[in-house]
Design a protein that fits this description.
mainly alpha; transport; single chain; 389 residues; 17 helices; globular; Amino acid/polyamine transporter I
């Protein structure tokens, strides 16, 4: 599952950089209607976003806490600013239409099927709660603060997202027009329709672009630390190089540069097919979900067999098993759905090929472990014991 976690975070990093890059491209379309967006423009912007994140994770690494605290403040103020603007300026739909009318826009033949496939869009923003875990070695009292941070972040952002989605549904207006927005991002069209001002819509959308860009900064930090730690356990090829921290640096430079290289290479897929790149997003989802499923499954097994658990400063108490079971059931359903294509009758070019890449990585990782990893791999528990001796 370590390999799936590496795959999930590396592809997530590429996906967030791509989203930020193409959002910048969307802003250009919004302000210059005569501009004709090209796939390679989006690719170059994606690489630029990834490079921006590398600079902050290397030269400005010591400033990361201050930067992320500043972004948090911007996030909160931007949320309420956009929320109020939409409610005040947008023509609002009827509550009955918002909460009771459903359409099978994907052509799945049933509202239920369309809902199951569409639920993935709501799951993706809530993934990655384990990001802070991969930075735990750089935190104080991580065993106590990390679980609280993970839960509070998910709760608050989930609540904010729920409020914004409801607002968006009331203010979306003509759905077909919004989906067909030349910017490529419906929210930009909603901002424009609501404010009737290109500059106002640009200002509102810019906050979201900033949030997406800085989320990539955090993802680079997480992805590189996760790769570094896995390499330190001798679990990947060229482990000594990936796990090296150069003298004078407090960050794994080689792992960070590798993360940048992977994001840049994956962004090249967009030049040939944007649909193919969307499969990378699906791959990120399934890879991370599989690592969650196995981890939670182990907890269920130990709790159901009354096996002893490691001592912890944070515990769910008697609710632990119930929470684990509900989580496992939900994650398994989402895991299966994440391999679904975007429509019920896809052509080969529209097919979600993430399952092929997922299977290839799974086979390679098992083969690598059997032929090499069994002789070199040292898990994190063994590493901690060495430090304690």
């Amino acid at each position: 599952m370590g390999w799936m976690c590496v795959l999930g975070w590396q592809t997530s990093c590429a996906s967030s950089a791509f989203i930020a890059g193409t959002q910048i491209q969307g802003l250009v379309v919004l302000n210059y209607p005569d501009y004709v967006p090209k796939p390679w423009h989006g690719t170059l912007l994606t690489i630029a976003v990834a490079a921006f994140s590398v600079v902050f994770n290397t030269l400005l690494a010591r400033k990361l806490p201050l930067i992320e605290a500043t972004v948090l403040v911007i996030h909160i103020f931007a949320f309420f600013g956009i929320l109020v603007t939409l409610w005040v300026l947008s023509p609002r739909a009827d509550a009955t239409a918002v909460f009771t009318e459903f359409t099978d826009g994907g052509g799945w033949g049933s509202i239920g099927g369309s809902t199951l496939v569409g639920i993935l869009a709501g799951v993706l923003p809530l993934l990655g709660a384990d990001a802070a875990v991969h930075m735990s070695e750089e935190l104080r009292d991580a065993s106590r603060t990390l679980p609280k941070a993970m839960i509070s972040t998910t709760v608050f952002n989930g609540a904010f997202g729920w409020i914004m989605v409801i607002t968006y549904c009331f203010c979306i207006g003509n759905l077909e027009e919004v989906i067909a927005s030349p910017t490529g991002y419906p929210f930009m069209q909603v901002f424009l329709n609501s404010t009737q001002s290109t500059s106002s819509a640009t200002a509102m959308a810019s906050f979201l672009v900033i949030m997406t860009g800085f989320s990539n900064l955090t993802m680079v930090a997480t992805s590189s630390r996760q790769l570094f730690a896995f390499a330190r356990d001798h679990a990947v090829p060229f482990s000594p190089w990936f796990s090296k921290v150069p003298t004078g640096w407090d960050v794994p430079i080689n792992a960070i540069l590798t993360t940048f290289l992977i994001s840049s290479l994956l962004s090249l897929i967009n030049i040939g097919s944007a649909v193919a790149l969307n499969s990378i997003t699906s791959l990120a989802t399934t890879s991370l979900l599989s690592s969650y499923i196995v981890s939670i499954g182990c907890m269920i097994w130990r709790r159901s067999t009354n096996s002893p658990l490691l001592k912890s400063k944070f515990s769910l108490g008697r609710w632990g098993l119930a929470v684990n079971i509900v989580s496992e059931a939900f994650l398994i359903i989402i895991f299966v759905l994440a391999f679904m294509p975007g429509n019920p009758n896809p052509s080969p070019s529209e097919m979600n090929w993430s399952i092929l890449i997922y299977g290839a990585v799974a086979v390679f990782s098992v083969g690598y472990y059997l032929f090499r990893g069994t002789h070199r791999y040292e898990g994190p528990v063994a590493y901690v014991r060495k430090l304690e001796q």
